[in-house]
TrEMBL record, chain B:
One of its GO terms (biological process) is protein maturation. Residues 224-304 form the FdhE C-terminal domain. This is Protein FdhE homolog. InterPro entries: FdhE-like_sf (IPR024064), FdhE_C (IPR056796), FdhE_central (IPR056797), FdhE_N (IPR056774), Formate_DH_accessory (IPR006452). GO terms for molecular function: ferric iron binding. HAMAP family: FdeH. It comes from Paracoccus sphaerophysae.
Length: 197, 307
């Protein structure tokens, strides 16, 4: 540091000149040392707070998800609250949103695709690959069989009424746009959003 | 008839949190002194906390006793609004005679405080300081940059600057302030000491940064780095009691991987008595533990230089 002569005189008078903490410089070094010794028994734990959107309905309330490592070192959701900065809900949540933590940590939460085959009484796991193939096959077969190009009067309608589509709520505008285009392009009329569930 | 305007956003109980909460200087410094005294009852740092409590009592006394400051000129406020600049011009305050008088009064009052010899030495040197040295000290404090080799004299100067800035900020109209930039006080352009997540009615869960200079609380979006403004790579570090595994920490370090800095965030909605300055000093243990991490402290507190 570049200090002119007058200042050097002042610093000498003020007992300054050696880099120190506020406590050390003021003569509280003993208390500071005791505090530093005291905290050695403690450690820091990494926690996170993450912004997200409530998945329950199309109001799309902002939420903040709190997580910290569990005993196995894996991060676990410890708390979910409304995002006070979110213009939609300003920190508030409805009873469904307020119960989100239990939904995230639920024991019977669906974590992989499942199938209940015709006639079966229980669901069984299926890979994403197989699941998507089966869905595509079923959609194609149903559309080939039931797609209506024209109505009784011969007016082109291009509608497919035997399959419905239910979309989720926590999507971006882009996802919503693509979903709409895909579904309507196939002629699906029965199209609803999770918003009203 | 009244002139109360309808506030439809109050109907759902979800009003917009105000941009800024201006300080009430006498009350603020008195409550801070009380908080320091309370914390000193159990802390290892008790001698330092007791000293700062006495200093805050002096600040509160001055805030009440000094002649009222002239409000910031309305034209200056208008110009600041247009340019998104803080209405309190810190540069102009370096030679302000009122700030000088506040410093003189604080130094005189502080003599009565019981303090260790090095602190007394700094206080004596300050009272004998030349005009040039005083300008240097005040300038450093107003720049929010205190040289690490002279923390003691700057602490007393910072206490006086806090009183003056808070008294100036109290003359402003919070409704006429505009946000400047993330991490910059809309009143005086200062840095935050820490931030608090408030529980006050109408702003529950909103985060307010606490200005280290004028003591204004201003609204900042949570999970945003107060040093660089990014929202990416924000995490928290909290002190865990290894014996009990208790991590219910009310003061956490908000870390930013973008710029490598961290600022304390205090859960005032869980404990309304938390004070952004008093509890900043009292939670020195968090600073000590954070020194071993990769981030550097960005919260500015003239009472906690060197961390």
């Amino acid at each position: 540091m570049n200090i002119d002569l007058s200042r050097r005189g002042f610093l000498k008078l003020a007992g300054a000149g050696v880099a120190a903490t506020s406590l050390g410089a003021l003569g509280f070094g003993e208390a500071e040392a005791a505090e530093l010794a005291h905290v050695r028994d403690f450690k820091l734990v990494a926690t996170t707070e993450t912004r997200n959107t409530c998945p329950y309905c199309s109001v799309a309330c902002g939420i903040i998800i709190y997580a910290k490592p569990g005993d196995d070192g894996k991060r676990r959701v410890t708390h979910i609250e409304g995002d006070a900065d979110h213009p939609v809900n300003r920190g508030t949540l409805c009873p469904k949103g307020a119960a989100l933590k239990d939904f995230v940590n639920a024991e019977n939460r669906l974590t992989q695709p499942m199938i209940r085959k015709p006639g079966a009484t229980a669901f069984e796991p299926i890979t994403w690959e197989d699941a998507l193939d089966r869905i595509a096959r079923a959609l194609k077969d149903d559309r080939d069989a039931n797609f209506l190009q024209t109505n009784e009067a011969g007016v082109p309608v291009n509608r497919w009424t035997t399959t419905g589509f239910l979309a989720a709520s926590a999507t971006t505008n882009e996802t919503a746009y693509l979903t709409y285009k895909v579904v309507r392009s196939m002629g699906i009329v029965g199209f609803d959003n999770q918003a009203r569930v | 008839m009244t002139d109360i305007q309808p506030q439809p956003d109050m109907i759902g109980g979800v009003p917009t949190p105000p941009l800024a909460v201006l300080p009430r200087p006498e009350r603020l410094f008195r409550m801070r002194a009380e908080r320091f005294e309370f914390l000193a009852q159990t802390a290892t740092l008790a001698p330092y906390l007791t000293f700062l409590a006495a200093l805050c009592r002096v600040q509160a006394g001055l805030a009440a006793a000094l002649p009222a400051v002239a409000p910031v000129d309305s034209a200056v406020v208008d110009r600041a609004r247009t340019a998104a600049m803080p209405p309190i011009d810190r540069d102009a305050l370096v030679d302000d005679p009122l700030l000088g008088a506040t410093l003189d009064a604080l130094l005189a009052e502080a003599r009565a405080i019981d303090m260790p010899a090095p602190a007394r030495l700094a206080l004596d040197a300050l009272q004998a300081a030349t005009t040039e040295d005083r300008r240097w000290l005040i300038g450093n404090v107003l720049d929010d940059s205190i040289p690490a080799d002279s923390a003691a004299p700057h602490l007393f100067v910072a206490a006086a600057v806090q009183v003056h800035l808070a008294r100036l900020a109290a003359t402003l109209d919070a409704g006429r302030l505009v946000p400047i930039r993330t991490g910059v006080c809309p009143c005086c352009g200062g840095k935050p000491a820490a931030s608090v997540v408030t529980g006050v009615m109408g702003a529950e869960g909103a985060r307010y940064a606490a200005c280290a200079g004028c003591q204004t609380l201003w609204n900042e979006v949570r999970l945003t780095c107060l040093a660089c403004g990014t929202t990416k790579g924000i995490g928290f570090r909290a002190v865990e009691d290894a014996a009990t595994g208790n991590t219910g920490a009310q003061i956490k370090a908000e870390t930013c991987d973008g710029c490598g800095s961290w600022v304390k965030q205090m859960d005032q909605h869980k404990n309304p008595t938390l004070d952004p300055v008093a509890d900043d000093v009292a939670s020195l243990g968090l600073d000590a533990l954070m020194k071993g991490e990769k981030w550097r402290r960005a919260g500015f507190d003239p009472f906690l230089i060197g961390y």
